Prior knowledge:
By secondary structure, the protein is of the alpha+beta class. The chain has helices at residues 9-12, 23-47, 54-85, 88-110, 126-136, 138-203, 207-227, 235-253, 278-287, 333-346; strands spanning 232-234, 257-263, 271-273, 296-305, 308-316, 351-357, 361-369. It folds into 2 domains: 9-136, no CATH class; 176-369, Heat Shock Protein 90. A 5-stranded mixed sheet has the order 2-4-5-7-6, with helices on one face. The longest helix is centred in the middle third of the chain and has 66 residues, at 138-203. It is rod-shaped.
Amino acid sequence: MRGDAPSRKWIDAPRKRPMLMHPVIFIAAFTSLGLLFAAQEWDHAHRSGFDIGAGLIFGSWGLQYFYWGVISWVLWRLFRPFIQNASAVRIVTIVVPLSFVVYLFETMIWVPFFRAYPMNHAPMPYWWRVNHNYWGDITESMAIFWGAFFLFRGMGYYQQLREKETVAAKLEAQLANARIAALRMQLNPHFLFNTMNSISSLMRDDPDAADSMLEQLSSLLRMTLERRDVQLIPLHEEIEFTETYLAMQDRRYMGRVTRTLSVDPALYDALIPAMILQPIIENAYVHGLSKLDRGGELSIEVRQQGQQVNALITNSGLGLKVRPEELPNGYGVGLANVTNRLHLHYGDDCSFSVQEIDGAAVQVSIAFPIQLSTATAEGLTRFGA
């Protein structure tokens, strides 16, 4: 009882108010705390045989904590930046004196409602009662004031920490997207250069095939432009791109390569990194199948394995026995590009491997988590929207 006890709008946006600091919630929580103390006081008085009305006890405690809830919320609302950033010197020179002034104000507006306090005393004038209650409750009220003050500082530190984590995550996502975009920019000229070389080699021997390849190349470039900066696309769009590319290679190799393409229908809407299969298939042709006069085999299989998409690209050719110095310039650009993009999208949740099979075939395996498309694909990475 009272008598005894970057343009970066997401960085510059206003800080969201914690739910606890909604005035109704905060003041109700403060008042409820006072009523809990009142219940404890009333139970103690009842067990001790004191005949004190429940209305008096609950009213005094409830009003006291209601006042403190209102005062604390107003101080937080008006002086939040100061409370959050005040130095030790300012706390001592400003906040400490303010605590006594605020407590005096709270006592002055509480006393008129409870003339029965202090109990067991003759009626006292208003200022005498203010003085009596002020010094009688100073320990409890200072605890309330400073508890609220440090609660607000703690909440501010927590908000700052969360905001820094959010900013860091968004900066990390922006950096990842920038790296992916740079890799895509690296990949497109590489792909275009190799395709133009293929068309050039057909111009004299088979102009019709070269013309068809130019049309198919135009289709591929149109698909690439339509995607713009989109990083994750549905698998069926990647397969459409891949089939167009394979049709181009069919014209160039004219029966020298037998290919199969198998895709699990359940994965048609799964999101995968754009242009992730083509560089691997291109390497299969350039560094394996192109070395064979006949009997080349290419197998492309995309299947679900647990909660992952698993793609296997297998080609016959020279295996992995060729020394690095004997490989043509640019070897590995596509595979390194694929590896880097997978890592940027999925971190450690993906795998990439190249292995030799029976000494005359190479198999590339990539795996990454299944992410089904439920809306229009956006340029997302694993770090968030």
